[in-house]
Design a protein that fits this description.
Layout: H1 2-17, E1 31-36, E2 48-57, E3 61-64, H2 68-75, E4 80-90, E5 94-103
Antiparallel strand pairs: 1-4, 2-3, 2-5, 4-5
Length: 104
């Protein structure tokens, strides 16, 4: 019985702690829709904006390119002035992690 309780505790811990690496905020169990900025808070917002994303399904499959380089290339940005992030998660079943850059 103790082994079953320990296995349940470990599984629950893994589920609740698995989203910690995605953002400085804990991922909501039911729904998350967060835009955030980390690092230098004195960055100016450039006239062009680009976004690149990676998606996750069931915590089993993750695909996409959520890199700063890809986001800048999509918008034709040569000089990056700010970097922001957007995290969306629905019932821990489907999620996206996006990088948003602005610049000139």
């Amino acid at each position: 019985m103790k082994r079953l309780a320990l296995a349940g505790l470990l599984l629950a811990s893994a589920l609740f702690l698995s989203g910690c690496a995605l953002a400085p905020l804990q991922i909501g169990l039911f729904y998350t829709d967060v835009k955030l900025h980390t690092g230098d808070h004195n960055q100016k917002i450039g006239p062009k904006a680009g976004e690149s994303c990676a998606s996750n399904i069931l915590g089993l499959i993750t695909v996409g390119d959520a890199s700063v380089k890809e986001a800048a290339a999509k918008a034709g940005i040569k000089e990056i002035t700010s970097i922001d992030y957007k995290v969306t998660n629905i019932l821990l079943l489907f999620g996206t992690y996006c990088v948003i850059v602005t610049g000139e």
